Amino acid sequence: MANFDIRRFGLVLRWMAVSTRKEVLSNTGAMFFAYMVVFVTNMLLSRNANFMDSANMLLFAIIMNSIIFLIVCIIGGSWIIKNMKTKEQYVMFMTLPASDIEKFAARALYVTVGLVLMSFSAYCLADVFRIVMSVMTGVNVVACTIPRLLSCVFCIYGVMSGVPPESLLGKVMMCVASCAWLFCVNSIYVLGGVFFRRRKFVLTSCCFFGLGVVFSMVKFILFGGNVPIVTNDNFVACAIANCAVFILWGVINWWLAYRLFRRMQVINNKWINL
Fold first, then answer.
1. I need a surface site. Which of 15, 22, 107, 240 has the fewest CB within 10 A?
2. Sign of the torsion formed by the C-alpha atoms of 10, 16, 21 and 27
3. Cα R_g (the chain), whole angstroms
4. What's the per-residue H, E or C state across 148-192?
5. Which of 158, 182, 159 is nearest to 75 (CA)?
6. Which residues pair with 272 in a beta bridge?
7. pLDDT tens per residue, range 27-44
8. What is the rounded distance in angstroms from the CA atom of residue 216 to the CA atom of residue 212?
9. Per-residue model confidence as pLDDT tens digits over 181-195
């Protein structure tokens, strides 16, 4: 089966939905617990504080939870073949009546859209509990934090560039560039999740750190102390250029991950899938 059939793909998704129900609930519960730890700590610290201090502490809690949200969405790519740890699991999944591209796409949806939905659902539930507990305990600031979380996520490119855009086009491109950056970084962990057979997250993170060091050295060699600075005037152009790089890099990573996925073997005692 070399082609993509939407009906077979739907059957694979339905099989995955049934087989991963407990995993989805446990992952969502773990994320909910992580968000609630931050919120409960914030409520304990801001219970007797004035309105301004309570608002600042709540903003800090939102930033911390947005970091947790981003980390989950990024490193979740390393779980792409988590359902094939043992020989039996590998044989069961690879013998499904579907093509390789359909199986890979189903797992790709799980570690991208699926994890984002799990993390976002856990945050929404945690925020509802925070609001109820804030009303019961008398915390000064009681407000929905979901819009602020989305703002933190979609403004990550603006934070990295150090320039908050002023124009509407700049703000739109900031959101697009943030999504492109997340797509690229997630694809690195997807590739690492398929390439490494053991310690996927740790080894991929080490490689990611190594790439950062190499790129920093290349940037210093090429530009020296005259590194191009992003300003409001060239923010849109820089965002477009970075989007192109992020998307191209991400597509290459996904293509390589699929090629490795097709080459995986049942019995392999090496640390890598080659």
1. 22
2. negative
3. 21
4. HHHHHHHCHHHHHHCCCCCCHHHHHHHHHHHHHHHHHHHHHHHHH
5. 182
6. 196
7. 999 999 999 999 998 888
8. 6
9. 999 999 999 998 888
